[in-house]
Design a protein that fits this description.
The chain has eight helices and no strands. It has 247 residues and is mainly alpha-helical.
Amino acid sequence: MMKTLGRVAGALALATLCTSPALAQQAPAQQPKTAAAKASQPGVAAPRSNQPSNDRAIPRTANKPVMNQTPAQVDQMIAGMLALCNEEEAMIGKFAADHAKHDDVKTFANMMAKEHGDMAKQLQKWAPEATLMGHDNRTAATDETSKSKMPFDPMHVHQQIATRSLASTEKSLIAKKGADFDMAYIGSQCVVHQQMIDKASVLRQYASPDLQSAIDKGIESAESHLAHTHQIIDKLAQAEKGGKTSE
């Protein structure tokens, strides 16, 4: 039983790591002194600035603000982000179905492949371009794009993140075999589906009524999947406990 709990803990940690924001920056250990701080030192004159006095209140960005988008463009962005999440889940489901050992895990993985694949297609009606890169181009394509210094495009960045996350998840799972693979996959699905529910619940607030209806169906399905993962984890734990008892 302790071994099973260890597997679950490891799987949850893996899933949390894989789904962390890919663009987060780590703060440096020490911040250099600002011009204002230097100016406060004796004998140091404050530098002149050509910026207006209310400069701090002006948001600075090299890209077009998302808030300037039309309602249709907002729907496209929301649907695209959720479509990529669902397509990623479908691809991981297909991968897990090919490598799982327990029949219940295989059945669940096949269900993920179908239902999340169907949801991705439904959302792609609003965002046809929101698709993952092909298997052979995943890591190479994202690396090459980052080197080319392309302009920041939120949808393209989400595509890169989902594509890289899929490749990383497959790499992590393939290192495990048998019961360890089953528990790692199902454990990660607990985290992934809760995060999907939370993400969809927030995004739906900004969507049109038609898109909200589609998102609501996705949330309901994800909640059902989440409950299913807990049932399978209990079954896997009982199976392992029974196996040890019979030894």
